Amino acid sequence: MLLAGCNGNVRSGGPVVANVPLHYDMVLESYKNGQFLLDGALLSPEDLASHFRYLDERKKLPKTVLLKPSSESSVKDSQLRWFAGLQVTFGFTGYADLDGKLTLVNAQAHPDDKKK
Fold first, then answer.
1. Across-strand partners of 25?
2. Which residue of 45, 59, 82, 83 is 20 to 30 Å from 29, comparing CA positions?
3. Which top-level group of life is the source organism from (predicted)?
4. Is 10 in a helix, a strand, or coil?
5. Spatial separation of the C-alpha atoms in residues 83 and 81, rounded to whole Å
């Protein structure tokens, strides 16, 4: 899947969010080597996508998801791109803590993907 705007604009991202949720349905943390932490479990990007598919099958997808740095690693561009892809695929509202600034992730599918 290609994502529109997933070049250098991904890191600059959307606007810094003024009205943020008090609670997120899911909180992901970045980890070393492009991995993620979810509720203490270490997941590869593929494992995380599998978890979202599982939640989708059970009609329990989160509506709001926060990606934040862990004590081990800041959010890397590759993790942000993966997170944006999950947002497009599963339709949640994504937020990312990028260098201490909470940013609304506004990912969109590449126009060529809509034709398939």
1. none
2. 59
3. Bacteria
4. helix
5. 5
